[in-house]
């Protein structure tokens, strides 16, 4: 039995996961505290740091957050929990907070998954 090239690519391509943090006007990720992403799959967790270029107008903050590609074992498929811990500063109020958010996603070979987290300002809570 021969497999089609498309099916073969889907079977051999490891699952791809990218974590994004959406920009929210007035909020900035602190450059001084470690905002992190935790990916848990099959009972094993990996913690990764979020990063980005510093904001020239506010050196204590990041101008934006870079997308974070997450490496997973090629054999892993199924549910994955992605959690973020964000150290945020509200520029207008001068208030800094920590926000935690979590999502559960399903990974399949050959299908990239992007998980986007949107921080909430103190006014949105």
Descriptive keywords:
single chain; 10 strands; 125 residues; 3-stranded mixed beta sheet
What does this entry look like structurally?
There is one protein chain. A hairpin with a 2-residue loop joins β5 (54-55) and β6 (58-62). It contains one helix and ten strands. With 125 residues, the chain is mainly beta. 21% of the residues are buried.
Shape: elongated
Q: Using DSSP, what is the number of strands?
A: 10
**What's the total helix number?**
1
Report Rg. 17 Å
Q: What proportion of the residues form beta strands (DSSP E)?
A: over 45%
What is the overall pLDDT average? 85
Instruction: Give the fraction of residues assigned to helices.
Output: under 10%
For the terminal residues, how far apart are their CA atoms? 56 Å
Unreliable spans are: 6-10
Largest sheet: 5 strands, antiparallel
């Amino acid at each position: 039995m021969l497999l089609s090239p498309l099916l073969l690519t889907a079977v051999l391509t490891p699952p791809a996961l990218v974590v994004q943090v959406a920009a929210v006007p007035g909020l900035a990720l602190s450059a001084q505290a470690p905002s992190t992403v935790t990916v848990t799959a099959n009972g094993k967790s990996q913690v990764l740091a979020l990063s980005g270029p510093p904001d020239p107008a506010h050196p204590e903050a990041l101008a934006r957050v870079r997308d974070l590609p997450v490496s997973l074992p090629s054999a892993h498929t199924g549910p994955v929990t992605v959690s973020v811990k964000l150290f945020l500063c509200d520029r207008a109020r001068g208030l800094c907070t920590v926000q935690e958010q979590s999502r559960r996603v399903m990974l399949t070979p050959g299908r990239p998954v992007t998980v986007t987290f949107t921080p909430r300002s103190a006014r949105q809570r």
